[in-house]
Amino acid sequence: MPASPHRVAVLALDGVVALDLGTPAQVFGAARTDDQTPLYAVATCTPGGRPVRSTAGFQVLPEHGLDLLAAADTVIVPGVQEGPPLTDGTVAGEVVAALRAAHHRGARIMSICTGAFVLAAAGLLDDRPATTHWAYAARFRRLHPAVRLDPEVLFVDDGPVLTSAGVAAGVDLCLHVVRTDHGSAVANRAARRCVVPPWREGGQAQYIERPVPSVTAAGTAATRDWARQRLHEPVALRELAAHARMSVRTFTRHFRSETGLSPAQWLLQQRTEHARVLLETTDLSVDRVARDAGFGTTAALRQHFHTRVGVSPTAYRRTFRAPSGEVGLTA
Question: Which of 60, 184, 297, 316 has the fewest CB atoms within 10 Å of its CB?
Answer without folding.
Answer: 297
